[in-house]
Structures are given as C-alpha cells and as structure tokens.
Amino acid sequence: MVDSLRRCNLDLQMSLENVSLKYNEEIEKRNNINKEIILVKGIAESVETKLNHLEAIRTEIVSNCVLMKERSCALNTLYSQLESAVSQRCQRLVDNTDILERKLREQEAIKSSLEEQIILRDRALEILEEEKNNVADQLQLNYGHFQREIDRVSTENAEIRATAELYSEENQTFKLKLSESDDLITHLQRDITELRLNAQLKDKLLEESELKMRDLEDNLKNKTDALDRAESLVANQESKLAHAERVKSATEDHLHQIQETLENLKNQRADESESLNQRLCSLRTRINTLSELTLKREEIHQRIYFDASAIKDKIKLTEELREIDRQNLKRQAGEIEDLRKLVSTLSEENNGLKVLKGKLETDLKDVKIEYELLQNKLQKLEQNNHNMSSEMRRLEEENSMHIEEKSKLARQLVEVQAVVEKAEEESAEAKLQNQTLINELDSYKSQLVKAKEESSELHECSKHMEDHLKEKERELQKLSARINILGKEADEASLKIGQMCQSISDLTLQLEYARQELSVEKMKQKGLQEQLARKDKERNDLLERSETQWREKLQDIQNEKQQVESDLKDSAEKIKSLQLTIDSKKTETSRGNKKLEKKIADTLSQLEKYREQIKDMNNEKKELCKTLNGREKEIIKLQEDAKQRKEHCEEIAEEKKVIFGQLEQAKLENEKKQKAVDDLTLELNRLKKIEQEYKEFQHQIYANSPPASTQLPAEIGVRVTQTPKSPALSVRLNSLSLLKTPQTTPRSILKQPGSARKRRRVFFAPQPDDTDEDQSPLASTEVDFSKEGIQEAILIVSPQYPTTPKPQTRQIQSPDKTSNIRKTPRKKEPKFNESKGAKQAGKGSVEWFECDRLFGVGVED
C-alpha cells in the first residue's frame, strides 16, 4: 500500500510538475499570443491608417478630378482657341494661296507673253544675226577685194618701181653712153680738126712735095686715091656724126620724156653705182684704147708721108672705128626702142590705174550704200534695244511687286510660324499635363486597386464598389487608351505641324533663293545692259572711226588723184620745157629729181600709212569678229537663262501643287483632330457624370454608414472577438477543424471532490509539410486581408482527427505504485495489470499536455 501510495505520490508529483511545466508553457504561449494580438492591433491600426490614407487619396483623387475637369475645360478652351486660330490661319492661308494662285496665273500669263516676246526677239535676233553675218561676209568679201586690189596695186607699184629702177639704170647707162658718145664726138671733132690741119699741112707739103717729088707722083697716085677714099670715108663719118647728133637730139627728147619716170627710180641708183663704175671702168678702158688709136692715127698720119703701109693701117683703123660707131648706134637704137616700149607699158599701167581708181570709186559708193544700210539696221537694233530696256524695266517693276508680295507672304508665314510655335508650346504643355494626369491616374489606379483589395476585406458592399470601380477602371482604361490615341494623334499633329513648319521654312528658303536669283538676274541684266551700252558706244565709235577713216582715205585718194593729174600736167609741161632747152632741163632735172625724191618719199610714207591702216582695219575686223562672237555667246547665255527660268517656274508650280496638297491634307487632319476633340469632350462629359455619381455614392456611404466597429462581417467578427484560449490563432487560419479530444482526465483527478468528467474541444491545426520548424507563424507581422485569404481562413468543421506526435522526453524511473496517498477508492487488480494501467494513464496525460503544437482559442462545452 505504502509503495502504491508512494508511487501515486510520485505520479502526482510528476504530473504536477508536468502540469506546472505545461502551465508555464501555456503562459508563455499566451504571452506570445498577447504579443501577436498586439501586433494584430498594430496591423489593425496600420490598416486604419491605410484606410485614412485611402480616404485622403480619395479626397486627393476628387480634388485631382476637379483639377482634371478644370484642366479639361482649359484644354477645351485651348482646343477651341487653337481650332479657331487654326481655322482662321487656314482660311488666311487658303486666301493667300488663292491670291498667290491668281498672281501666279498672272505671272504665268506674263511669263508666256514674255516667252512669246522672247521667241519673237530671238527670231528677230536670228534674222539680225543672219543679216549681220551676211553684212560681215559682204564686208569680208569687200575687204578681201580691197586687199586683193591693194596687193595688186602694191605688186604693180613694185613692178613699176622695178621698171622705174630699170629705166633709171638704163637712163644712167644712156647718160653714161651719151657722155661717152660726147667724149667720143669731142675726140672725133678734135681728130677731124687735126685731120683738117693735117690736110692743110698735107696740101702745103704736097705743094712743096709737088715741087720736090714730081718724080714720085706716079708712085703716089694709088696712095692719093687711097687718101681720097679715106677723105670720102671721113666725110661719110662726118655725115654719120651729124646723123648721130640728130639721133642724139631725138634720144634726148625721148630721154626728157623718160626723165619723169626715171626720177621715181633714183632710190636704186646707189645699188647700181657699182655696176656703173664697172661699166665706167670698161668705158675708160675703151677710151684708153680709143686714145691709143688716136695716137696710132697721129702716128699713121705722120707716117703717111713716109709709108703707104701706114696709110693702109690707118684706113683699117678708120674702118674699125666706123664699125665701132655702127655698133654703138645699133645699141643706142635698141635701147631707144626699149625705152619706147617701157613708156608704152607705163602709159598702159597708168590707164589700168585709172580704171582701178574708177572701180575703187564704184566700190566705195557700194560700201557707202552698205554703210547706210548698216546704219539703218543699227538704228532698228537700237530701237529694239530701247524696247527691250523698257520691257526689262517693266519686268523689274513686276519683279519688285512680286518681291513685295513674297515679303508679305514671308511675314504672314512668320506670323503663322509664331502661332504654330505657340500652339506647339501649348500642345507640349498639354502633353506634359496629360502625362502628369496619366501618371496621377496610374498612381490613382494602383491606389484604387489597393483600396479595392482592402475594401473587399472590410465590407461586403465593397463588391458593388468594386464592380463600379471595375467599370470605372475599364472606362478609365478606355479613356487612357483614348488619351494615348489622342496623345499619339497630338504627336502626329505636332509632327505634321513640324513638317508644315519645315515645308514653310523650305518655302521661305526657296523664296530667299528666288530673291537671290532675281537679284543676281537683275545684276546680270544690269551688267548686260551696261555691256550692251558699252558695245553700242564702241560700235558707234568704230563706225565713226571707220567713217572718218573712209573719208580721210577718200580725201587722200582724191588728193592723190589731183596730185597725179597735176604731176602729169607738170610732167607734160616739163617735157615740153625739156624739149626746148637741155641745159635748163638739166638744172630743172636736178630740181625735179629732188622734188621727185620728196614725192617718192611721200608716196612711200603714204604706202606705209596705207599698210598701217590696213593693219588697223584687220585688227578692227578681228575685234568686230570677237564682239560678234561675244554677242553670240551672250545670246546663247540669255537663251540658257530663259530655259533655266522656265524650269525654275515649272519647279515653283510643282512645289505649289505639293503645298496645296499638303494644305488639303492639313485641312483633313484638322477635321480629324476636331472630331477627336469632339470625342474627347463627349468622354470628358461622361467622366464628369461618372465622377458625380461616384461622389453621390460616396456621400451616401459616408452619410449612412455606422461606426467601423459595428461593420465587422461575420467571417472576421468571429476571429476578432475570439479569446486566446486555444492555440488556433497561433497558426494561420487555413483548413482548421473543430475536433473532440479522445483523452479523458485521469481517474485520480476525477475522483477528487468537486471534480467531474469533462470533455474539451480543441482546435488542432495540422502542421504544414513545406514549412520548417524555424519559420514560426509568429514571425509574420502582416495579415493577409485579401478576399482569397479570407475565403481560405473560413473555419471548416471536419471530422478529421489529428495525430498528436509523441513527445521525445525522458521517462523518469519512478517506483511502483504501491501506496494511495489520497486514499481514493480504486479497483484492486494484479500488479502486472495495475502497472500497465498506470503506465497507460501516464502516457495519455503526457500525450495531452506535451503537444508541440501551439494552443489556440478553443470552444469549451
């Protein structure tokens, strides 16, 4: 008994210790649960703060909605202002484009008329060029004829000079021969006088010899006959000498006629002096021979008286002299005939020169006629140039008008650009506002989503709000999508506006380029006009110079004609005067030679002047050809400029077409934007209505809602109002089951007074398999108040019995239960059975108290 009591006491002590331990553990657990409750209260407070924050967010949303409305109103006003401004600008642009089209049509008509006039002028210029070419060809032909005639005249002059030189040479030879013949005649006269003296001496000697040499008369008869023959020969020689004197006079007459021709050929005497000196040397040799012959004759005359042989030699010598005289006379006759031929050729050449002068006069008349025609053509060209200058002035005035119109258009474009820039700035500000609003809407959306989640946990009415909010979210999404679309359209519109601005800037640049081109063309036209004026002046100067030169040449030719006629008259008079007196002619010939030398020098100087004039004419001809080529090039350049202008006008017309197409596209885009703005206004009105409905609903909720403590739903109210009696709250309320405990209290406790059999209902939460022992549910401070968490947290009563794990505790070796300390009635059984029952009771108590799971709040029966 004592042992059993002891055992019972030990068991009681052990059980008390176990109970105390379990009690302490439960106290700790309850403290932990209190801590968790405090945490839950903090979470609830945080939830309340979040709700307050949500309410503040809602108020901010309302204020933002008001601001959105105000901004939408401002945007509507801006859109309306922009639409009005854009419509006005479009109308202005359309009006300006219409005005520009009209002006362009007028310009095109003017341009077409100008092109026709240019074509007509080109044709007239071509005709004038053809006429110029014909005139130039005629001038070239005439100039060629003149050059040929000048060359022919120069060749004839050269030939005349050559013939004159030949005549001068022959004249000199004749003069030398005449001087030689004079010398011979003087010698012959001396010889004759000597012969006469000798004859007288002979007569005297004969008379003396007749007395002395009568014996020798027979022997000397033959000699006397020979002497008679010699005397007859001498008489014949004297007659021949008289005839020679006559011929000499005739030759002198011819020489006087030729002197005028010979005077022109004195320039070449110096070259022929050497030949003449040689001839003089030869003549001197001949004279020496003749002197020797005379000496021989004297010796013969002296020897006549001595030897008949000497007489015969003298006769031979006289015969030789006669032959020499005959040869000289023949030579003189041939030379005289040559001189006559030369005189005839010179007369023929003079006649040819007269004929050439007549031809030249006729050519000059023709040239004067052509010159008058050219002057008429030049006057016509000047008139055409004057008309062209007047037309150019008119075109310049029109260009100035166009430039003013373009400047006005540029100003209007600048104004349009300013308005467009303002619109772009306003659109950028609107975009920024839209972006801020979109960001705010996104933040509001996120906040609304959170509010929806929290409101779904707080109240069932939030479902209706969620539905409304979902609808609103959808509408907001639609609105955001529409806003994005509108933003994209606004971006596209801004891009198109930028493209329009770029096109406008391109047009302004093109206008500036056109202005620059017009200014360049004006400068070119001014330069061309100045060049034309200069060329006209040069042309007039050249024509005046050519006229003066032609007049001077005509005057020079007339003066030369008069001089030639006067020279011919003077030559005739001189010939007559020379025929009268040779001595006076000799003196006059010297003077005439000087005059002729002067005239020859004058003629040579005139020829040099003519050559210089010919060179000047050639240079002028080259300059005229250059000027004609330059004008042709200028005409070609003008034609190219006209073509470029045509192309430029065509490009401008194409650009205008493109601009009109862009304007039409801009109009269509503006219409689309107006439609989009109308849609936006409708959507904004719809949003305003939704916001009003939401405000009314919110007001109704705030007005009709009771305190928050009374609005707890049944699902949450059970959990919130629970007391920390069971370990159920220590674990998340997932798949909990309400179970009956199979354990019973020990009999020793139940047998005590005041004790009764009790059954306890305990919530046993099964331990999750995935979580570890370290991850305790107390570590999580946040509570999942979402709809899914609430649905999972609903208590589900199921008959599943949890399996409590066996405690891993040491078994204390206790003595056998032999004593019953409390002396309660007990059933006596064998020891073996009692020990087993005690062990089983002890194990059950340990299993009930020593569970590793946390206790939750339980419901006791």
Automatic annotation (TrEMBL):
Residues 90-117, 199-275, 329-496 form a coiled coil. Keywords: Coiled coil. Residues 532-547 have a biased composition (Basic and acidic residues). Residues 525-547, 742-761, 798-843 are annotated as: Disordered. It comes from the Eukaryota. Residues 800-822 have a biased composition (Polar residues). This is Synaptonemal complex protein 1. The lineage of its organism: Eukaryota, Metazoa, Spiralia, Lophotrochozoa, Platyhelminthes.
